[in-house]
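This is your field. Have a critical look at both lines of this record:
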Amino acid sequence: MESLQDHWGRIQEEDTAVMPFHKRNGEGNFIPLNTSENQIKRYTYDVKFEHAEINFDLTLVSDGTQYKIVWISLWGSSIYMTPEITTKIEELFSNPENSQK
């Protein structure tokens, strides 16, 4: 949280919603086999900082006694990225070696 606040400022507002389960690309690799949709919960968060707005999902699966996080997804607008982060992301995605990992 300290690192987030260093970059984006203090949290101004937050909102949480429980969403109906819907599969996302790649998520199936993390959900245990034979898990029914009623064993899965998805929470979506919208967090507004002083200088950014970030959204993320948590997908939780019940093992019968408790829920465990199996998938975390974060997204936001690139308008809040610093030039340093923008450059690092561009380098990451322009490097063909990284696309095979």
The longest helix spans residues 83-94.
